[in-house]
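I am writing to request your help with a piece of structural work I have in hand. I set the record out below, with my sincere thanks for your time.
___
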Amino acid sequence: MTDPRTSQPTRFPDEPQQPRPGLTEDMRTKPDHGEISYVGKGLLSGKVALITGGDSGIGRAVAIAYAREGADVAISFLAEEQVDAEETSAWVEKAGRRCLLLPGDIRDRDHCVALVDSTVAEFGGIDILVNNAAAQTMNEGLDSIDDDEMQGAFAANVFAMIRLAKAAARHMKPGSAIVNTTSEQAKIASKSMIVYAATKGAISSLTVGLSNLLAGDGIRVNAVAPGPVWTPIQPIAKSSDELETLGQDTPLGRAGQPAELAPAYVLLASSEGSYMSGNIVAVTGGVPVS
């Protein structure tokens, strides 16, 4: 047994800040995406998954896990993240599965439809949609909230999820699954992240609503609520001092690693979670979100 308090890094010293969108390649302390540790059991054999934000962070960890569970994977990402996306693709192909790279901006409504259409055209269908990509915004006070940034956050975090679910559901058969990424911020709503928290609260409600709407079609919809996780989104929004101590205020005393989130996404996408729908699965280092 490993001690969960010390099984992963507890500090991230001298981590440089990054401009948007943030790259794994430029992080001083590289995240653990399960490249070495994740072992598949064939839980998604023959399935097709589309993962937004699949180039890095949680998305990369999910792509690696899904591939090792037997799924072909399409990943969407911003064009500026191509180098990270190619690294993810290499890990998927190393697992013996196919990977389709789909650059573009999910804030564009037509691109959301194109992502699903391209996945279906390449792989012959879609069984799993992972709505993971997100824009994280920070604020000091109400006056510091930029209106364009706020609209962009809702477009990426909420509107794109609805559009992608709408486009994917029409291709999905009974037994398919949608897995959304919400956040502990949906409940704790830090005063410096009120727009981001609002989008994540909307995602949590959307997850329940979609689960009710699609249950009659045999499609399950759930969400994962991460706590502080060491991904490229962190150096974008936080200072070096904040980065060094990220996650130390959680009960387990450290930030999570993307590899520690992937098993939840596998559970919710596979038949192991066949009686789970409308759930928010917290992976927060002990922070309660209910």
Notes: The mean pLDDT is 96. The chain has one domain: 45-283. The beta strands are 48-52, 72-77, 99-103, 128-131, 177-181, 220-226, 280-283.
